[in-house]
Amino acid sequence: MKYFALMVALLLGLASMAQTKMTPAEITSFKKEVLIQAGKTTSITADFEETKHVSVLKNASTSSGIFRLKGEKLLWQYNSPKKNAMLFNKQQLKIKNDKGKITTIDLNKNKRFKQLQQLMVGSYTGNLFDEESFTITYFKNGAVKTAVLKPKSKDMSKHIKEVTLTFKNNENTVSEIKIVEISDDYSVIILKNKKLNTAINESVFVL
């Protein structure tokens, strides 16, 4: 067991060494590429799988659902194990729980959810490089690029320690999101079957 633990530690060490910080020139180029892609993107559809790791639980929990983005409308809908959804639309957030009850939140009056909207929508529109709200560090590992965002505001930093956005295979849209809470519990969200600029019926954005 000691030998196995040592091997795991060595492998993790090698993995972390493979990831290096981007140079200022690489950061500038990366931001430009993401913004160019964002300018060409009118919609995004994807399936997602979310794995949540909680320190007090032995096993991680897994959920899945669909993601839809069109203009200022963003739908984040869980289909399994329970069905619930979050719908951002301009300055409004609607949350539908597993019993079908809908709660409406004015984002102008709720800083926490407003910042969540900026983070979620910005992750896919290219407006994620908000250095006024986040301290951002950029890394690369071959064709994989990551941006690690640490919130500056006291309100958001009470709940979220950092968010890592991963861009894979030289794509300029996010493929994976890791959210680390202040307790060090964390969730990893992986987007699958991602498609850009497909037609999305407006009925999709009705809870």
Automatic annotation (TrEMBL):
Presence of keyword Transmembrane: no
What domain of life does the UniProt record list for this protein's source? Answer: Bacteria
Gene3D superfamilies (alphabetical): Lipoprotein localisation LolA/LolB/LppX (2.50.20.10)
Task: Check the record and name the Pfam families matching this protein.
Answer: LolA (PF03548)
Q: Which InterPro entries match?
A: LolA/LolB/LppX (IPR029046), OM_lipoprot_carrier_LolA-like (IPR004564)
Q: Which residues form the signal peptide?
A: 1-20
Which terms are listed as keywords in the entry? Answer: Lipoprotein, Signal
What protein am I looking at? Outer membrane lipoprotein carrier protein LolA
Organism expressing this protein natively: Paenimyroides marinum
